[in-house]
Write a structure and sequence with these properties.
OB fold (Dihydrolipoamide Acetyltransferase, E2P); 5-stranded mixed β-barrel; 15% strand
Amino acid sequence: MGEFFTAILTFPTALFTFALLVVVAFWLLVLVGGTETELLDGSESSFATTGLDPLGLGGVPVTVAVTGLVTLSWFTSLVAMVGVGAVGLSGMAAVLAGFPVLIVAVVTAIAGTRLVVIPLRRFLRDSAQPTRQDFIGRVCVVRTGHVDTGFGQAELTSADGSSAIIQVRQSAVHARTAPLSQGDSAVVFEYDPATDTFWVAALEGN
């Protein structure tokens, strides 16, 4: 047991040991409900982007990508430094040997995490919930007596087959040339996040 603690507190494994403790603490908080679970969902803000994306780790929650990197880096570094100790290196020689171990551990972790991320990315993409922007370009059916610049509702069917009642609006110009009434089909062409409404136009052939 003493050798184990010595190994995990030796450079460069000690760097990953600290990071691993942070990761473990985070997941324990998730299990007890002490942190935001939105970090684990498919929302765009939680995806691994920018810094991790060039490494081929994009398209999954940042927490998942970082967990893979830290865990694999720690394990690879631990195994390598145990090997360094087994050949009798110690002191400054062991520290110098730690630098190439650090590089190998990081490269191995990136490669290993990518193997996990690739199939997980496909799963998350397939199971991602539709967003309001996904409704743009889809056809809806008016459910109110009329639609104008301040009133209107329509039923829209998403790509996954689920339906939703949305608030729709029609510009004054469109209302004069092609007014919408109950049962008419319309196409969504714009979403206004400020009012959570969709601007629609009459579908040709109504």
